[in-house]
Amino acid sequence: MIDIKSLLVIAISAMLTENFVLSRFMGICPFLGVSKKTSTAVGMGMAVTFVMTLAGIATWLIQHYILVQFHLEYMKTIVFIFVIAALVQFVEMALQRFSPALYTALGIYLPLITTNCAVLGAVLLAIDTYNYNLIETIVFNMFAAIGFTIAIILLSGVRERLEEAKIPSFMQGLPIVMISAALISIAFLGFQGLSF
Amino acid sequence: MNSIITAIVAFGAIGLAIGIILSIAAKVFEVNTDPKIGEVLDNLPGANCGGCGFAGCSACAEAIVKGEASVNACPSIDESSLSRIASIMGTEAEKTRKLVACVMCSGSNDVTVKKYEFDGTKSCLEINALNNGDKMCNFACLGYGDCVEVCKFDAITLHNTLASVDKDKCASCGMCVSVCPRNIIKLIPYDSKVYVRCSSEDKGAAMKAKCSVGCIGCGICAKNCPEEAIMVIDNHAVINQEKCVGCGICVEKCPKKIIETA
């Protein structure tokens, strides 16, 4: 029986209270790298959501039908990296064939997130730490990625405003972005108070 | 020992399975990209100036091959490359008149009257925002070189705060036309024989006070033109290059001597 309430708790905590970027500090590279403009941030967020959800399904199946069967759980890190990379390749080819519009929309971001630690982190957390079942894994991964999207869009909004702000020269560039990200992170601490 | 072998076999099997799936997928999902796109791209200038209206040379090449753009979509292309692209596409290149950019102002620092002296950032855009520029004439070239910076072909130079275009270097991409805050850079035919380097819309008397080489809209050129190719529009003379035969009478008659021969 699918327990809606527990799924909702998983979703909210993955998205807000335990936000991947702002609480767990995973996926910082794209978070700082492609948050210059909101349009690219949205593209990156879409690509991460897409890949994270699919990677959750694929790795859960591999974990439970191959690794556990042969007592190879200790190999999961390398196998998961491998599977995620292959999956992204496959998805990219399929998209190019069947949905060129989505393919061009995601663009370079799709292959970029192959080695994103947020993707690997999400599947390892879901399978290893929390020991979720398949449905829970899908929900957890999807909302973790939506949380990532929220965070990167928020930062890109701040950065677009910063473009026009007068910033002391020693703070220009990455330093002020780091500070902005830290402030957003502190703001997200407020969600810690949510209890179910 | 056993567990090592299991690990190797399992990982090898996963790798093999993924390899096979990916290679099959690569065949099944193969997208046929037209080899013509690459060939056309090789013949484009590669400056990615955006003058064609597409995102860059590769986007332009794709549009040409797909038929969304004509073979001479690129405004910056030379004749031989154009004919090569036409032969790749199997069509004849239409003959188009080559255009060049021309700064429609002759008001260098020594002939124009200044409103104020400006010591800030050297940018036409900013100075234009400051009380309509530092020259009295609102249609004068500001001469801080926004167009020089944006030109990918090094065709624009500044002399005494007046930009001028080297028409042999100009590729007519139109970048300077769109960047000029005064809108005084125009594309004119390469083989134009005469042109009026002024775009002032001020009336004659007002113009005289601002600039000694401004068109006062007297219309002497228009009256004397045997081909009726000149009209005074918005208080300055405009030459219809289709009708102009290059006789040079207007150059001679102009009291301000601002009609130039090419």
Account of the protein in words:
The complex is a heterodimer of chains A (196) and B (262). Chain A has 196 residues and is an all-alpha fold. Chain A has one domain. In chain A, 73% of the residues lie in helices and 0% in strands. The radius of gyration of chain A is 18 Å and the shape is globular. The mean pLDDT of chain A is 86. Chain B folds into three domains: 55 residues, 3-methyladenine DNA Glycosylase II, Chain A, domain 3 (Orthogonal Bundle); 94 residues, Alpha-Beta Plaits (2-Layer Sandwich); 70 residues, Alpha-Beta Plaits (2-Layer Sandwich), CATH 3.30.70.20. Chain B is elongated. Classes of the chains: A mainly alpha (196), B alpha+beta (262). Chains A and B meet through helix 3 and helix 4 of A and helix 1 of B.
Note the main attributes of this structure.
heterodimer, A: 196 residues, mainly alpha, 9 helices, 73% helix, 0% strand, globular, B: 262 residues, alpha+beta, 3-methyladenine DNA Glycosylase II, Chain A, domain 3, Alpha-Beta Plaits, 3 domains, two-stranded antiparallel sheet, 34% helix
Briefly characterize the structure.
Chain A is mostly helical and 196 residues long. Chain A has helices spanning 4-17, 28-33, 38-67, 76-98, 100-106, 109-112, 117-129, 134-164, 174-188.
What does the secondary structure layout of this molecule look like, with pairings?
The complex is a heterodimer of chains A (196) and B (262).
Chain A: H1 4-17, H2 28-33, H3 38-67, H4 76-98, H5 100-106, H6 109-112, H7 117-129, H8 134-164, H9 174-188
Helix pairs in contact in A: 1-8, 3-4, 3-7, 3-8, 4-5, 4-7, 7-8, 8-9
Chain B: H1 2-28, H2 35-43, H3 57-66, H4 79-89, E1 99-103, H5 124-129, H6 146-150, E2 156-158, E3 163-165, H7 175-179, E4 185-189, E5 194-196, H8 204-210, H9 220-224, E6 230-233, E7 236-239, H10 249-253, E8 259-261
Antiparallel strand pairs in B: 1-4, 2-3, 5-8, 6-7
Helix pairs in contact in B: 2-3, 2-4
